[in-house]
């Protein structure tokens, strides 16, 4: 039977609609407008696209959007001062520093200088610790979006075998914590994992977040499993014309879709959910700040 295609684009539109309704109520009933500040250092083209999208969708949801674009040579002290000012600005409820940062900046130091309650990325060490111990925290947006799609498709995830391929702080590790929180049996696989194919073949849920185009083939997928593809890789596509490119995920879509029970497409799967969850986290931060 053909796999169900999990429509992240439609789901994200629904989440954004709920966020916009919540924002309208906060304004009307309490005179509060949630505010999100995004800080971009340098001119990385992919980061510029993401930041533009985040700003646009923040405004569309009725929230205040502030962008700080700093040049690639910005000193650590200057960046920390920008963050300190945002920490102290009561009209800003969420702060996101777009990663990766230029090499001369200490990413951990910068992230940990964000007030934890405004850390809508959930990357601050306090939020990482709170998530790991099952306490109320800010949850990283991409894994949160994946979890929402999984819950929507399955209802309960309790007792399912889940494999997360990739151990990044942004996706792999928090994804594993969230699945564990939903009572899955979780394996984190990575570049040194032995017999990756066998590990993946045992899984009811496969989350691929490695950043390697089409690395998971269909014959690794247990029949009927759910495949969540976090990868967004740009490949040359000469078949579409000279100089053309296409986006592919970390799984080989056609063969994995043939084996899976459900699968997220690229584009239109996890990607749109990430920004929707960022908006939702900003509203959550605003509500917590205002009791
Ligand atoms: N770069 C790639 N993904 C992300 C993300 O989720 N948050 C931030 N801040 N930077 C990123």
Automatic annotation (TrEMBL):
Q: Name one GO molecular function term.
A: methenyltetrahydrofolate cyclohydrolase activity
Question: Which residues are listed for NADP(+) binding in this entry?
Answer: 166-168, 232
Against Pfam families, the record matches this protein to: THF_DHG_CYH, THF_DHG_CYH_C
Example GO biological process term?
A: methionine biosynthetic process
Q: Give the reaction(s) catalysed.
A: (6R)-5,10-methenyltetrahydrofolate + H2O = (6R)-10-formyltetrahydrofolate + H(+); (6R)-5,10-methylene-5,6,7,8-tetrahydrofolate + NADP(+) = (6R)-5,10-methenyltetrahydrofolate + NADPH
Record domain Tetrahydrofolate dehydrogenase/cyclohydrolase NAD(P)-binding: where: 140-288
The residues forming the signal peptide are: none
Provide the alphabetized UniProt keywords.
Amino-acid biosynthesis, Histidine biosynthesis, Hydrolase, Methionine biosynthesis, Multifunctional enzyme, NADP, One-carbon metabolism, Oxidoreductase, Purine biosynthesis
Metabolic or biological pathway: One-carbon metabolism; tetrahydrofolate interconversion
Keyword Amino-acid biosynthesis attached: yes
The cross-references to InterPro entries, in alphabetical order and at most eight, read: Aminoacid_DH-like_N_sf (IPR046346), NAD(P)-bd_dom_sf (IPR036291), THF_DH/CycHdrlase (IPR000672), THF_DH/CycHdrlase_cat_dom (IPR020630), THF_DH/CycHdrlase_CS (IPR020867), THF_DH/CycHdrlase_NAD-bd_dom (IPR020631)
Q: What is its EC number?
A: 1.5.1.5, 3.5.4.9
Keyword Oxidoreductase among UniProt keywords: yes
Q: Which residues form the Tetrahydrofolate dehydrogenase/cyclohydrolase catalytic domain?
A: 6-121
Q: Which PANTHER family match?
A: C-1-TETRAHYDROFOLATE SYNTHASE, CYTOPLASMIC (PTHR48099:SF5), C-1-TETRAHYDROFOLATE SYNTHASE, CYTOPLASMIC-RELATED (PTHR48099)
Q: Which family does it belong to?
A: Belongs to the tetrahydrofolate dehydrogenase/cyclohydrolase family.
- State its role: Catalyzes the oxidation of 5,10-methylenetetrahydrofolate to 5,10-methenyltetrahydrofolate and then the hydrolysis of 5,10-methenyltetrahydrofolate to 10-formyltetrahydrofolate.
Subunit structure, interactors included: Homodimer.
Q: Which HAMAP family match?
A: THF_DHG_CYH
Q: What is this protein called?
A: Bifunctional protein FolD
What species was this sequence derived from?
Roseobacter cerasinus
- Lineage per the UniProt record: Bacteria, Pseudomonadati, Pseudomonadota, Alphaproteobacteria, Rhodobacterales
